[in-house]
Amino acid sequence: MSLSRLLATGLGLVFVVAGFVKVQDPHAFAVAVDNYQLVPQAWTGAVAICLAWLELLCGLCLVFGVLVRGAALLVACMMTVFLAALGYNAHRGLDVSCGCFGQNGPVDALTFVRDAALLLTALLVMTLGSEQRKRP
Amino acid sequence: MPGQSPFSKYAQQAVLIACVAVACALAANALDDGPSLLPGSYQPATDQTLGGEPVPVITVQQARQLLGSALFIDARGAPDYRDGHLPGAASLPVEHLEGGDVPVVVYCSDPACGKARQVAQRLAGPGLRVLVMEQGIRGWAAQGGALEVAQ
Asked: Which residues of chain A does B3 touch, with a Cβ-Cβ cutoff of 8 Å?
């Protein structure tokens, strides 16, 4: 199995699990979204359920090798947004429960490292094995 | 498509997946028995209500006036509590609630004193396991327990 396939499968499994947990209980995840205080309250429910399905579908695409680069691009975008949200809230001193894997847990340095690693993996999946030498 | 950059191909794939995801989300929301998550009907209920009523909130000024008469409880984790907490505040980290009922110990001076029982009766509620230390502070001190004096 190529490195690219290995990374895609691993990344995919993480998102299948994370997405599945949220799809099971979108209301609980909506509370987590609300805690970040970045989305207008009326929209937290919609954002929560869409994010949940987006994570699950990207995970499935990555695991089954379907539309892989598109899924990796979406994952990279999501991780960038999540990291920015975590960073901004850390900056403004907001003590948020993570909501990353469904249950509430504290956000610490490890969360940042983990999310950065996921972002990096997504970028690698997007670019490894590409025919192009130069990226746009 | 000829001449298409790989990045725009990835972007098209991404848009396709995103559209399917939104469709699934809308379907799941419609099929779900519970209240809708869409704006217009959605209200984040869990953290905001206390028995269906909005949780009463007070300002820092109002809280300051209650120092000495109210019981202050710090809901953050133990490390944050150790770093600094409001004078006299007790620690009750939210994480403790997940493990089931939280024990709350009430005491007064000795077994003859009824005050602890009175307070315990008022406090009893879901998620709190209220216990009375019957021997009171006298029994605690008699058995070598440490005491804390107000600064």
From this structure: none
Instruction: State how far the alpha carbon of B122 is from the alpha carbons of A20, B100, B106, B115, B125, in Å.
Output: 42, 20, 11, 11, 8
pLDDT digits (tens, 9 = 90+) for A4-60: 999 999 999 999 999 999 999 888 888 888 878 888 888 989 999 999 999 999 999
Residue A92: pLDDT band with limits 50, 70, 90: confident
Within 13 Å of residue A17, how many CA atoms lie on the same side as its CB? 9
Q: How many CB pairs under 8 A join A and B?
A: 102
Overall size of chain B counted in residues: 151
Task: Give, as one character, the DSSP assignment of residue A134.
Answer: S
Share of chain B above pLDDT 90, in %: 15
Residues of A in contact with B76 (CB under 8 A): 95
List residues of A whose CB lies inside 8 A of any B CB: 23, 26-28, 30-31, 34-35, 40-46, 48-50, 52-54, 56-58, 61, 67, 69-74, 77, 95, 104, 106, 126, 130-132, 135-136
